[in-house]
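Researcher: I'd like a structural prediction for the single chain below. Treat it as a standalone chain; there are no partners to consider.
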Amino acid sequence: MKNNKASQFMREEHDKIVKILKGFSLEITPFVANKIENLSQFIKPSTTIFITFLPGSDYKDTVNTAKKIQQERLNPAPHFAARSIKSKEMLEDYVSRIVGEANVKKILIVGGAGKHQIGPYADTVSLLETGIFDKYGITDIGVAGHPEGSPDITDKEIKKSLILKNKFSETSDANFFIVSQFCFDAESILNWSIKINSEGNKIPIIIGLPGVAKLSTLIKYSLSCGIGNSMNFLKKQGSNVLNLVKTQEPDKLVRKLAVSAEVLKKNGIDGIHIYPLGGIRKSSEWAQSIIDKKFILTRDGFKVNY
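Model: Treating it as a single chain, here is the predicted structure.
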C-alpha cells in the first residue's frame, strides 16, 4: 500500500514538472540568431523567442532577426530598451517595422542595462506613455521583474515603477505580463511574487530561469545582473574549482517550483522563461525533452534524457 502511494506521489510530481514547462519561452541575440541557419530544427513551432536589445545595438538588426524567427513559424518578441532609444522617430520606425515586416504582436520593454541614457526615455513607463505600442496594435507587452533587486535601480524605485506599470496596463489595449530576471532560488521567487502582489501588483508573472550552462558562465552573468541570494548560492558551488566547468541544469529549481503549483497559481505565476546562457539549442532541447516526458526523478531533482 505504501509503495502504491509513493508511486502515485511521484507520478503527480512528474506531471507537475511537465506542466510547468509547457509554453516556455526563450531568448536570443541578433548575433547568435545570424549564426544559426534554422532555429526551427530544435525549437517547436509557435514558441516565443524574445530578441535582446543590448546597449549599442542597431534596432534594424533586431527587425531582421524578428523576420527570420517569424519566417520559421516561431513567435518573435523583440526587446525595447528605453535608455537606448535615441528619439521618438526611432521608436516609431522600430515599432512600425517589427509589426509591418515581422507581424510582431508581443514585445518586452526594459529600462536597459546600465544608467546611460542616449535619448528622451529614462524608463519603461516613459516608453509606454508615448502610446506608440497601442497605435500599432501590439497585443502583449512584457515588463521586467526583479526577484533579487537590480544594480541599476533602487528597490524603492522598482516598487514605484511597478505601480505605474499596473496603472498603465488598466488603460492600454494590450495584455501585460511580467518577465522576471533569472533566479536560482525558489523561495526567493515565491516570496517576491507574494510581496509585489501584496503591494498591489495584478499583472501576471512569468518566471525567468537560467538555462543549461557551465557554472562559470552562470556566475559571470549573475555578477553582471547583480542578483543577491542566487550569487551566494553559485559561489558556494564554485568553491570547488572542478564544478566551474561542469554543465548545470536547473532541474532542482524547476522541481521545487513545480511542487509549489498551487502557490504559483495563487500568486499569478503562469509561465516560465528560460535564459539560454549556455546556448539556445541546449536549453531548448532540455526543456522540450521534459515536455516530452523524457526524464526520471532523482532524490531532489530529475535527470533529462536529451
